[in-house]
Write a structure and sequence with these properties.
heterotrimer; A mainly alpha (177); B mainly alpha (326); C alpha+beta (191); A: 177 residues; mainly alpha; Four Helix Bundle (Hemerythrin (Met), subunit A); 0% strand; B: 326 residues; 11 helices
């Protein structure tokens, strides 16, 4: 079980790096999907199948599909790839890379020194009932807040997408201006 | 069926069975369509024309495997594989008979939903990589349709999950011993069936392909076995949805004792495959915006209502309402 | 306004669910019933298709009732043919009777329009209700005169061109044809 964990973790890291370095945005998004899938596998292995399934359904299955949907409509070919290539110069990515490497080193240090890494993989399974209980028990506030946020999003989307009813004919409209 | 069967046997059996059923369905569909159109259909090669499947397969294998020079090669090759893989993966959680299941995941249905949402990528990527305007149009329609109908698909299943109290399909089938869920969850059944048809983009809802408007849509640039994989994926998808309808609403392998459970399961599944084909024979294709409107304005409220009503009834039955303090 | 919209949505819902669902189920049921209807298919190689007598199929050259060739080599069929698939060469026998030396139809070009039959003044060339002439070798579709000639009179039995035409050939002088009077002696003073 451990070896599969390490394999999928490595796949997750590699594919995430590929996401950043691809010039073709669809290829980058494909690597993002792979990264989500490997993350879901990690979740599955460490005993959270519910989170794994939701990760795939929501992130890989719905959100990235929507992003790809939008990008397909933008028709980014040729020129856009060249533009990306121009933008991604070493002087752009060196700074953030160093900073995140420092963070990574700190993370490794924390994991190595504390007892987080010592216990190995947990064996108990978090089933959907437990997820539901914790969501609607101790974390009820978070659920309510995110529900409100989503509601605001829906109302906003409705407002943006609403079509105004035209009363004046367009010829008359021009005359008025 | 007391001692567990070797899982490798089950995996091999399921794979072999499905990969014979999928091309077999081509023959089955052509015969049934002919039956409903006052024809005979393929009846020359072999008994009842069964060997027409072999002829089709040989033809597909020996066609030129053409990758257009303007296509995005890597993605173009990956796309047809995705559909076959995801549908085959979904069969992992289908219980064919007591104990005959590849792996009894405790998130069974969620796994199926995850895999079917991944299946949307085959259409999107296939259409995008073809670099052809019709294919792209098909891909965009496909993406929108699959995402929308996945929402209703998940929601329509939740009633069954509430009633049985489990995501595992084996538990769901076992809990239908008293009554099939089609009776209390009739609305769930209808909406799941509609969403399933849209999810496999079968004929009333074959808007991503739409032969007459989009010249086969997302797979118009595909030939040979790459097209064959899309084809097999579609038929496997029909089988999957039929099998799931049977498991979730029609008691899976349950049935009177004179036939073995596996036979009951296959019989029921084929009834629903026949229903899919009957739909193809009798329904016209809706317009794209009609499809989306139907989904969001009719099916979504119905499924939500169904879910809420089911939850309330269950809550009242369990007596938990009395304990709520306002 | 809002109320109206909501009402419309509910009405729409009711309309769609009751009316169109019923009509969908009804049409599915009607299609299903076709299972028990008679098949329209003709199982071709075993069961032959019944063709009408004027069906335009394979082209044949017919004969007189006395088994002489009807074709007089007038080239009208070749001239009428829109795809130029007919070629022939006229010649005369010792009696002065014209006949084609060779007569060739390339059926890989022929479009079975029947113009040759219409053009023919002697009912010699005819299209008959037969279409089973598939070949593996394209060259085999070029029919020579011996392939085209049949020992029969085709669609016009009893018609004999030289018996009704006023032309003199060996064995039949002017005025000897059917319904023909002997030629007038224009030098005579008798009425």
């Amino acid at each position: 079980m451990e070896i599969t964990f390490y394999i999928s973790a490595a796949v997750a890291i590699l594919s995430t790096m590929m996401v950043i370095t691809r010039f073709n945005i669809i290829h980058a998004l494909l690597y993002l999907v792979v990264s989500f899938l490997s993350l879901a596998t990690v979740f599955f292995i460490i005993g959270a199948p519910f989170a794994a399934a939701l990760e795939i359904i929501i992130y890989a299955g719905a959100i990235v599909v929507l992003i790809i949907f939008v990008i397909m409509m933008l028709n980014l070919k040729g020129d856009a790839i060249d533009q990306e290539r121009e933008w991604l110069t070493p002087q752009v990515w060196v700074g953030p890379a160093i900073l995140s490497f420092i963070l990574f080193a700190e993370l490794v240090y924390v994991l190595g020194s504390g007892n987080a890494g010592a216990s190995g993989l947990p064996n108990q399974l978090v089933d959907s009932r437990a997820v539901g209980k914790s969501l609607y028990g101790p974390y009820i506030l978070g659920v309510e807040l995110s529900g409100m946020l989503l509601m605001a999003g829906i109302v906003g989307a409705y407002h943006l997408g609403r079509q105004k009813k035209k009363v004046i004919h367009r010829f008359l409209e021009q005359k008025q201006e | 069926m007391t001692e567990p069967i070797n899982p490798w046997f089950i995996i091999g059996g399921v794979l072999a069975g499905l990969l014979t059923v999928a091309p077999g369905l081509i023959w089955f569909e052509r015969r049934l369509l002919a039956l409903w159109q006052d024809r005979y259909g393929p009846n020359r090669a072999g008994p009842f024309g069964v060997l027409v499947v072999l002829a089709d397969t040989i033809k597909l294998f020996f066609k030129e495997d053409w990758i257009p020079p303007f296509a995005d090669k890597a993605v173009f090759v990956i796309a047809p594989a995705i559909v076959a893989i995801t549908v085959l993966m979904s069969f992992v959680i289908v219980p064919f008979a007591p104990g005959v299941i590849v792996v009894d995941l405790n998130i069974g249905i969620l796994f199926f939903l995850a895999m079917s949402s991944m299946g949307a990528y085959s259409i999107i990527l296939g259409g995008w990589a073809s670099n052809n305007k019709y294919a792209l149009l098909g891909a965009m329609r496909g993406a929108a349709q699959l995402i929308s109908y996945e929402v209703f698909m998940g929601l329509s299943l939740m009633g069954v999950v509430l009633l049985s109290g489990s995501f595992s399909l084996q538990d769901i089938v076992n809990s239908q011993k008293g009554m099939w869920y089609v009776v209390p969850q009739f609305i769930g059944f209808v909406t799941f069936l509609i969403a399933g048809i849209a999810e496999t983009h079968r004929l009333p809802f074959d808007i991503p392909e739409a032969e007459s408007e989009l010249i086969a849509g997302f797979h118009s640039e595909y030939s040979s076995m790459k097209f064959g994989l899309f084809f097999v994926g579609e038929y496997l998808g029909i089988t999957l949805i039929s099998a799931l309808v049977v498991c979730l609403f029609f008691g899976g392998w349950l049935g009177p004792d004179f036939l073995p459970p596996l036979v009951w399961f296959i019989l029921k599944t084929f009834v629903f495959i026949g229903l899919f084909i009957l739909l193809r024979a009798s329904m016209p294709r809706p317009r794209y915006d009609q499809l989306m409107e139907f989904g969001w304005k009719i099916i979504l409220p119905i499924t939500l209502l169904n879910l809420v009503v089911t939850a309330v009834i269950l809550l009242v039955q369990s007596g938990a309402v009395m304990n709520i303090k306002f | 306004m809002g109320n109206l919209k909501l009402g419309f949505v509910i009405w729409n819902l009711k309309f769609v669910i009751l009316t169109s669902m019923f009509s969908i189920l009804q049409s599915m049921w009607l299609v299903f019933l076709h299972m028990f209807h008679k098949r329209e298919t003709i199982q071709y190689p075993e069961e032959k298709v019944k063709l009408p007598a004027r069906w335009r199929g394979r082209i044949v050259l017919t004969r007189d009732p006395d088994m002489g060739e009807r074709c007089v080599g007038c080239y009208l069929c070749a001239a009428a043919c829109p795809v130029d698939c007919i070629s022939l060469q006229a010649t005369e026998d010792e009696n002065g009777r014209r006949y084609p030396e060779f007569f060739r139809i390339n059926f890989s070009r022929c479009i079975f329009c029947g113009y040759c039959e219409e053009a023919c003044p002697t009912y010699a060339i005819q299209l008959i209700p037969d279409f089973e002439m598939g070949e593996y070798n394209r060259q085999n579709l070029v029919y020579e005169k011996e392939d085209l000639l049949i020992n029969g009179e085709g669609k016009y039995p009893g018609y004999n061109y030289y018996k009704v035409a006023g032309m003199a050939i060996g064995g039949k002088d002017k005025g000897q044809a059917e319904n023909e009077e002997p030629p007038l002696d224009i030098k005579s003073l008798e009425p």
